[in-house]
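so i finally got all the pieces together for this one. its two components total, 225 residues if u count the protein bits. some of the lines might not be protein, just check the labels. i wanna see the whole assembly predicted at once instead of chain by chain like last time, that was a mess tbh
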Amino acid sequence: MKAKVRLFARLSELVGTREVEVEVGEGLAAAEVYQALCAKYPALSGLDGSVRYAVNGEYADAGHPVGEGDEVALIPPVSGGSRAI
Amino acid sequence: MLFEITSGALEPQRLIDHVRKDGSGAVALFSGVVRNENLGRRVLYLEYDAYPEMAERVMREIAADAMGRWPLTDVAMQHRTGRLEIGETSLLVAVSSPHRREAFEACHALVDRFKEVVPIWKKEVWEGGEEWIEGEAVRR
């Protein structure tokens, strides 16, 4: 099946697009979809420790299953403002 | 309730009017603005990127949490995307409540939470370089 993956900010600049489709096996975990994406775009490798996953617009664990038609997003640490107060 | 990611200029008065109800005795408004300096670098401008559908959903969730924790009369949040110049407003959080204490507390807590979980990213452009600023990987 095909999984749609959305990329933002630095990650979208790394691969030059905001949305990609990857061919993956049915019922793979979000983290496995990410691994499949890395095979296609090596520039995205090594984010395992920092990136979070979202499936259909909600934060999801790395093990969250991804089905046909689901939208996966790689969420780098957010920065809508400074940590400093 | 109003939760919005927009590329247009933010208007504080619109949010204040939106959250003020007849039962509100206080409205607290936080306005995040673009400043000209960070880590000793002279910032030229910022560029914000967002996952809009998810951002609006997460804003709705953190607002619901705040409504459960304080007796608020309403909450509204907006974040702007695209290129923002020095002095422009990137974030507005407005909270209304019967009395001021809850409005201040909830507004403060919502801004902090916003910056941890709402999927929005900032690129800083300074003289001679640029960088996507990434916060700490906060788990919830």
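The CA atoms of residues 14 and 43 of chain A lie 6 Å apart.
Residues 2-75 of chain A form a domain with the Ubiquitin-like (UB roll) fold (CATH 3.10.20.30).
anyway lmk what u think
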